[in-house]
Specification:
This protein is an alpha/beta fold and 195 residues long. The chain has a single domain, classed as Dihydrofolate Reductase, subunit A (3-Layer(aba) Sandwich), CATH 3.40.430. It is 25% helix and 28% strand. It is built from 5 helices and 9 strands; from the N terminus they run E-E-H-E-H-H-E-E-H-E-H-E-E-E. A hairpin with a 5-residue loop joins strand 8 and strand 9. The N terminus is likely disordered.
Length: 195
């Protein structure tokens, strides 16, 4: 694996304390598609990627999900066993939705108010990272609002031709490359922060 630049440390507030960070990680094709990675991602999964993705998950104590991703996960993970299932079932889950009013999956709460205000307050509270998984529309919204501190893109060497892309033609979001690494499979891990 090759890498450039060093990952930055969490931002310190005016009082000298460290704020929690909101991180997002997405598998993405060369042509920007992030939809349905379960149909194209797995041939590129190896121990290098697993270690990085596992490290991101271990650094978080809260999972932030959009409604669709939440419903997909909630229908699957409570019925699974193993380390990943145990971790997902136990972690605190916050669901961003204007239509969902209650949740059934363990440790889940709906955020339906002013998302920027709620997440800004949550970042000030003690704890580890807040991780966004999947949730394409939510990730876009958080990027546009400047709320994602760390964006991890795992660029796969495949062109899909169609599917939902992370960015739209209207997006103009300045980012700064904090770290990059190339895995043996040809996947490039790009770690961006707000510019």
């Amino acid at each position: 694996m090759t890498s450039t630049a060093a990952a930055a440390t969490p931002a310190a507030t005016a009082t000298g304390t460290t704020e929690r960070r909101i991180t997002a990680g997405l598998f993405i094709s060369l042509d920007g598609v992030v939809e349905a990675p379960e149909t194209w991602h797995f041939p590129y999964l190896n121990e290098e990627m697993g270690a990085v993705v596992g490290g991101l998950a271990a650094a978080a104590d809260t999972l932030l999900l959009g409604r669709r991703t939440y419903e997909t996960f909630a229908a699957t993970w409570p019925h699974q066993t193993g380390d990943m299932a145990d971790a997902l079932n136990a972690v605190r889950k916050l669901v961003v939705s204007t239509t969902l009013t209650e949740t059934e999956w363990n440790n889940s709460t709906v955020l339906g108010g002013d998302l920027v205000a709620e997440l800004t307050e949550l970042k000030r509270q003690p704890g580890r990272d807040i991780s966004v998984t999947g949730s394409i529309m939510l990730t876009r919204s958080l990027l546009r609002a400047g709320l994602i501190d760390d964006l991890h893109l795992f660029v796969h060497p495949v062109v899909l031709g169609s599917g939902i892309r992370l960015f739209t033609e209207q997006d103009r979001i300045p980012l700064r490359l904090a770290h990059s690494a190339t895995f043996r499979t040809g996947v490039v891990h790009l770690h961006y922060q707000q510019a």
